Structure formats: structure tokens, C-alpha cells
């Protein structure tokens, strides 16, 4: 697989600009007080599908060949990758099939169907859904869009970090959530090119640490996958994002699901922002690391806002 570079990110920005508006970067005094430093939120929850992955979807599907468009595309997802593929496929008139776990977030499923994608339920976990998706792709000849091992996806999502650093060039630390790792890999490419001194820090739930263990040991690992955060819920590491992160990700932290739920509440109370669990995980990491971050200018990626009512009720009951 081609390892995407900064030129790929610049090309991705040109491709997605006609379809996606730049998302805001805001600092909130109440969050600054909570963390004890200057902190900025990159609002990818403001994307038309409520999550950052749509950047990669537009970049990839815009580059499909005529033959691939005719065959149609298929993807496995816990929600946001599927919404990204569905949104981009509709923009370019391509048939999309999304395979989701049986207990996938109902709101995300409804959104995918609303964007004219066919949704297939299979398995209890993302990894079971992914294996079935790959089988369907082989059987029917669909263009399979992996949620991490796609250079065009990574280059596309990297444009969020490019925007962030154009708005605030003095950012010293960027914290990004990691499920499969496409967002973190993209952040590393953009940040390390523009300013190699920036610390890119990944965060994952300790209940689903496959990406963390793979990064730590620098080999692909599997691990238990029990987190409530759909965007962090991968039990198997992805090769391409890991190859990028092994050389460029400065630090990787694990937080508990309880810390993530509390961070969802902090985002509502202090930033007037609805963040899904994965989107709030970066604030959870910043709060845990607040002593270490004191005096730094920090950006956190709010990767999405597609929380379920079940998760929101659970967070508010803490």
C-alpha cells in the first residue's frame, strides 16, 4: 500500500473543498479552566454526517474508476465510516452497501439509510461485521473500502489537522482518538510536516486496546473489544495507520469508558457541544494529562457527535 504523504493531503483538500466546508476551531474558557491550559476544540462533529471520516470518503470515492463506480462499494462500520461512505457515494451516484454489527447505533444506521445506502446487520462486533463484509465483496465484486487501510482515506482525514494548524499555528499538542487509526495517522502526516515539534497524542479506550498494544509493540495485535465507544471499538489493528503511527505518533494513552462518559458531560456543560464517546475521548485524555499539559497550547479533535440516546443518558447519570 502507498504510504500517503503531505502532497496527498494537499491534493485531498482540493478534492473535498467543493463538498465540505471548513470546520471551526474554538477555545472555551470553561474548558481552559478544567484542563488548566489553553485548549482548542476542532469541531469535526459539525460535518454533514457528524464525523470526521467524511473527508476520507469524499477523497476516495471521487477517485474511483468508472468500472469501480459501476460495481458499487461496500464497507464495514460501527457507524461513522459507513456514514462517510454512504454520503460520498450518494454525491457521486455510486451504490453503497454498509455492513454493521447487529447492535449498531440506531441513529447512525438511520442516517446511512437516509443517504440511500443498503445496510446489512451481521455479528456482535465490528470485526465480525468486517469479515462478513469482505466475504460479500469477494462474492459480488464490490469495491471494498477498508476503514483504515486506504491511503486516500488517511489523506482525506488529515485535512482536519491541516485546517487546525492553519487556524492556530502555535499549537504544541494535538490529541486525537484512535479506533483503527486513520485519523491519528493523518494527524501525524500533517502535523509532522508543518511542525515536527508538535506532539501528536493518540487516545483509545482501555476496554478496546488493540491499536494501543500494536503501537506499543510495533507489530499488529488483537485485543479484547468491549468499549461502549463505537469509534474506538476495534479488536484488530490496521496495518497502514500503524505503519504511519509507529514512526510519528509521539504518545498513546488509554482512558476508561467512565472517563470518556464524564468527558461527554464536560463537553456539554463547558463547550456547549454534543460529542459522541470517541469524540469526547480526547478531552478525557487531556483531563488525565492536565498536569503534564500545563502551559501548553493544546488542540483536541472532537471526531464526531453521533452519540446514541442510551450513551447520553448513561453519561448524564454519572
Main sheet overview: 6 strands, mixed
Unreliable stretches covering 5 or more consecutive residues: none
The share of residues in extended strands comes to 5-15%
CATH class of the largest domain: Alpha Beta
Neighbour order of strands in the largest sheet: 1-2-10-7-8-9
Counting DSSP E segments of at least 2 residues, the number of strands comes to 10
Total helices: the number is 15
Named CATH architecture of the largest domain = 3-Layer(aba) Sandwich
Q: In terms of structural class, how would the helical and strand content be classed?
A: alpha/beta
What share of residues is helical? 40-55%
Mean pLDDT: 97
CATH topology of the largest domain: Rossmann fold
CA radius of gyration is: 18 Å
For the termini, the CA-CA separation is: 44 Å
Please tell me what the overall shape is: globular
Question: Secondary-structure element order, as H and E?
Answer: HEHEHHEHEHEHEHEHEHHEHHHEH
Number of separate structural domains: 2
Would you write up a description of this structure?
Helix content is 49%, strand content 15%. It has two domains: 6-51 and 150-316, Rossmann fold, CATH 3.40.50; 54-144, Rossmann fold, CATH 3.40.50. Helix 3 (54-61) packs parallel to helix 5. It has helices at residues 6-16, 29-35, 54-61, 66-71, 80-91, 106-114, 126-140, 151-167, 182-194, 210-217, 239-248, 257-271, 277-288, 290-293, 309-316; strands at residues 25-27, 38-43, 73-76, 96-100, 118-121, 143-144, 173-177, 199-205, 251-255, 297-302. The protein is globular and about 55 Å long. Strands 1-2-10-7-8-9 form a six-stranded mixed beta sheet, sandwiched between helices. Strand 3, helix 5 and strand 4 (96-100) form a beta-alpha-beta unit. It is of the alpha/beta class and 318 residues long. It contains 15 helices and ten strands.
